[in-house]
Amino acid sequence: MTLLEVRDLTVSFNTADGVVQAVRGVSFGVDAGRTLGIVGESGSGKTVLTQTLLGLTPGADISGSARFDERDLLQLTEEEMRHIRGERISVIFQDPLTSLHPLYKVGWQISELIRAHDKSVSKKDAAERAVELLSRVGIPRAERRVNDYPHQFSGGMRQRAMIAMALALSPQMIIADEPTTALDATVQAQILDLLLRLQRESGTALIMITHDLGVVADIADEVLVMYAGRAAEKAPKREVFYTPHHPYTKGLLESIPSSSAAGDRLRPIAGQPPSLINLPSGCKFHPRCGYVMDRCLSEEPDLRQVGESGFHNSACWLPAGAAGLSEEAEELREEAVHEERGEAAAEVAEAVAADVPGVAVVGIEGEGAAE
Amino acid sequence: MSITEVEFEAQGAEAAQEVAGRRIEGRSQWQLTWARLRRDKVAIGSLIVIVIMVALAIAAPAFVSLTGHPPNTAYPITGQDAAGNPVGPGTNGFWLGTDGTGRDLFIRILYGARISLFVGVLTTAIGTVAGVAVGLMAGFFGGFVDNVLARITDAVLAFPYIVLALALAVVLGPSLSVIIAVISFFAWAGIARIVRGQTLSIKEKEYIEAARSLGAGPFRIMFFDILPNLLAPVLVLATLYIPQAVVFEATLSYLGLGIQPPTASWGNLLSDAQNFYQQAWWYVVFPAAALLITTLAFNLLGDGIRDAMDPRTERVLAGRRRRKRRKPRASGPGGPTAEFPDPVRQVAPPTP
Amino acid sequence: MPASTGPADTAPVSTGQPVALEGILEEDVLVRVEHVTKHFPVRAGGLIRRTVGQVQAVDDVSLVIPRGKTLGLVGETGSGKSTLARCVAGLVPVTSGRVIFDGRDVTNLSRRAMRPVRRDVQMIFQDPYSSLNPRRRVGAIIGDPFAIHRTATGGERKRRIQELMERVGLNPEHYNRFPAEFSGGQRQRIGVARALALRPKLIICDEPVSALDVSIQAQVLNLLADLQQDYGLTYLFIAHDLEVVRHVSDSVAVMYLGRIGELGPRDDVYDTPRHPYTAALLSAAPAADPDTAAARQRIILTGDVPSPIDPPSGCRFHPRCPKARPLCSEQEPQLEPRLGDAPTHVAACHFPVEAGEDLAAAAPARSEVS
Lengths: 371, 352, 370
Description:
The structure holds three protein chains of three kinds. Helices cover about 35% and strands about 20% of the residues of chain A. By secondary structure, chain A is an alpha/beta fold. Chain A has two domains: about 1-225, P-loop containing nucleotide triphosphate hydrolases (Rossmann fold), CATH 3.40.50; about 245-370, no CATH class. In chain A, α4 (about 105-115) crosses α5 (about 125-135) and α7 (about 155-165) runs parallel beside α8. In chain C, α3 runs parallel beside α5 and α4 (about 155-165) packs across α5 (about 185-195). Chain C has a domain at about 5-100 and about 240-365: Rossmann fold (3-Layer(aba) Sandwich). Chain C is built from twelve helices and twelve strands. An eight-stranded mixed beta sheet of chain C has the order 6-7-8-3-9-10-12-11, sandwiched between helices. Chain C has a four-stranded antiparallel beta sheet with strand order 2-1-4-5.
C-alpha cells in the first residue's frame, strides 16, 4: 500500500539574486516496507524535496501535494507537523554531530524524545527504552554508553545513535539524507547493513537520499534519479542500473570508474550542472547531452513510461524502446537523433563534444577527443 | 537559544546557499556585497547622511564666506540679545542661532564636524592598521609571539579606559594630538583580538597549505593569502569603531580634556551649551543632533555592510533582515522542549 | 633499462630492513620513503602545557614510487595517509626516517633549502572550495608558483597562466574571475593548473575527486591521466574510494592506523588481497551494480578504528580482525610476501587471506570489541 504519495511537488525560493527553482513538479510514491533511493548531484533538489515534505523549508513557495496516511503533509500546521515528525516520519542526517545536542547525554536525548511525544511514559521506562534502542543499533555495552556525551562517540557510533533516535517512536517512514557520506567505507557498510536489517524487522518505509550510486544499488527497491530539480528517471532498481533510458542516468553509470577497465579512459558527462536560478530552456540536461535533438532545446519532457516492465519512467524525448546499454538500444537512439537533430541541436551537440575530451556525442566523429 | 538551535539555523542557511548554487556568478565579493547593500534602504540612507555630513564639514569655509561668520568670531550685537543670551535660529542671519558668546552655531557645528570626523576616522585608521598587524602576527605565528601579543591586547582591553584617558589628558595636557593618541591606543586592541581569531581560522584553510606547498614564505602568506580575507570583517569593525571614536572624542572634550576652546568640537559645544539649556534649546539640540545622527549613521551603515557580507543573514528570503535571533519555540504539549530540539527539526522554524 | 620487465616494473617495494629493489633500477625511483615515522605530541593543561601522549600518525612506513607511475594510497580516516603525503611533500617535518626525492635526501630541509625541491613536488588538494583563496583572482592563484619562484613575470606570466588554463580545460578568458564563479569541477581544474605550473616531477593528489559530483569526477580523472601521459608525471594518489584508486594506480598501498598493511601491484592487491583489512575494505566498497551488490558477501568489521594515540599492540588491526588469534596481539607482523606472492606484493599479516577464503563467515564468531 502506498504510504506516501507525492504529486507534482514544486518548491522555489525567492532570493535576492533571483528565484531558485529547487524542485519542479516531482511525483513519486513510497510503499510501506520499501526503499526509495533518490539519487542526484549537488543542486539536484533531492534534499530540498524531502525537507519540504517535513515542513523544513521555511520561506519557500510550495505547490503540489504529499499525501501521507490520508493527510496532505503540505497543508499541515506547524503543530500537526511536529507530531508527524519523529512519531510517524523520522529523519537521519549526514552529520549526526549537528543533530545531537553536544551538552546532553546520548541516552537522555533519546529518552527525552520518547517522553516529549508521550508524556505517559515514565522516566525509568524511557531510559530503559533508550538502552534497548542503542543496543538494537549495535552499540556495544549500551547500558553504559547511554551516559556518554555525543563527542565521546565515534562517527559511526553517532550515526548509530541517530538511527536509534529515528527508531525511538517507531515511525512508519524514515528519511535518510546521505546518512553514510561522512563515514569510512567499512563503517558505511556497517550502517547500510544496519538500516537494511532494521527495515526488514520493522517494515518501515525508507527514503534514501544519496549521490552514491553504490549505496542505491545496495539497498534501494525503486530509484528516482533527479536532475536540476526534476525527476529524470524513475524505475525499479535493476532497470535503472541495467536498462537506463535517460542519457543522464546512463552518463552517471558510465562515468563511474568501476564501469570501465582500470586504466582506460573514463567516459565523463560534459559540462557542469546548471544554475537553479537560470535554468536552460527545454530539457534541462540538453546542454550536456550527447543525444541532443531539436525538440530538447524548446520542450521539456515529462516522465513517461518507457521500456517493457510498465514501471519504468523517463523524462526524455528519445524513443520509449531505446532503454538500456545494449547495441540495439544505442542504434535506436542514434536513429532517433539522426532523424530529429536539426541545425540548432547540431550546434549544441558540437559544444557538448568540445567541452571535455572523451565525451561521446552521437553524430560527431572522434568523440570530441581532439586534444 | 540553545547551542544546537544556533547550529540548526546555520545549517539551514547553508542549505539555502547550496540551493542557490552558483547564484553569485559573474561578480566578485565586493560587487556582490555592494549589490546587496544597495537594496538595504537603511544602510544607503546612512551612507547618504555620512556623505552629506562629510561634505558639509569639507565645505565649512564656503559657508563662512556665505554667511560672513568665521567660526571663532563673536557677534555681541547681532548674536546676543539684550540679556546677553544667544539668539535663536533664523535671527539676524544666524541659521541655527548663536552660542553663549554670540558666535554662529551652524558654522561652529560644521567646524566641530571637521574635528570630530577627522579624529574619528584618523584614530580608527591608526587603530585598524595596528590592530590588524598585531592580530595577524599573533594568529599567524602563534606560540610565544601569540602569547605575548595576546596578553598585551588583553591588558589594554582590561584598562578602565575613561579613567586612563582622563589621567593621560591631565598629565600631558589636553591637545588634539593627545586626543588622537589616546583614542588610537584603545582602538587597536579590540580589532587585534578579532583579527587574531579570524587569522587562526583562515590559517587552517587548505589554500594556506597550498601556498606553503608552493614554497611561499610567512610574509607572502600573511599579505597575499590571509590579509585579503580579513578586509571584509575589518571594514565592518572599522565602520563600527568610527562612531565610538567620535563619541570618545566628544566625551573627552565635554569633560574639558579634549579639544580646547576656541576651537569648536561637538563635545565642547555641548559642554558649553549646558549653561544655557534653559534659555537656548537650540544650543543643546543642534550639536547633540549632529553627534547623534552621525554616530547612528555609521552604526547602521556598519550593520548594513555586515549583513551584506555575511551570506547567512540573507537567507532565502529577500529583504527579510535577521538582526535578531528568533526566540526559541515555545514548547507545546507533546512537543520537544526549547532546550532540547526535535532531532528532526534541523532548519530554523518559519517565522509566524 | 634492461632488467625491468613485468609487474616488478611498476611496483614499489617495501620491506622491513633496507628497502630492497626488486627489479627497479635506482634511477627509475623518484620517491623513496624510508622508515618514516610521524608523531604529533598531544598536549594538555592550561597555562603550563605538557605532552601527555603522541598521536602515531605514521609509523615506520617505507615505500618507493617509480618515475612516471602512480602509487595509490588507500586508507580510512586516521590511517595517516594524508600525513604521509605531507611528509613526502615536506609540509610537516618527520619524526624519524628519511624521504629521498630524485636521489636527494630532502628530509626536514629548511624552507630555503626546500625551495628548489618545491618546484618538483606539487600538491592537489581535496576541497576545491577551501583550497583556492576566495579573495584572489584565478589568474593570480595559478600564477602564484611563478611569482613565488620568480620564473616568469608580466606578459610572459600571463601567457603561461592562460596556456595552463587552456590545458586543463578552462576558458583562458576567465583569467580575472574569482573562484566563486566556478563550479566544483572547474575549481579543481584551477588547482590542477596551479600544481602543473612549474612542471613538477611529482604531484601529490590528496583526494582530488572525492568532493566532486560523480559526473564531474570522471572529467578530472581523465585530465589527470592525460597530464601524466603528456608530461611524464609521477602521482602519489590518495583516496578512500577504492574504485577510483583501482582506476588510476599502478600500485597500491593500504594503510591502517599509521602502518602499511598491504602493498603491491594494483591487480595483485585487488584480486588477491592478503591482509584481512584490505579484503574487508574491498568488500565494503559500494558497487554501482545491484547484482554485484546482492551477490557480494560483505565482511562487516566490528567496532571502530582505535585511537592512534594508543594503538593496539602487535598487529594494529587485530581488535577488529575476523581472523585474529593470540599471536596477532603479541607480535607485530612484518611487511613481506605471503603465500608465495611475488616479491612485489607484500602484506603485514600473520594469517593472510587465501584466495576464495570466506572471511564474512569468520566474522560473527568474534565478540564485539570496541
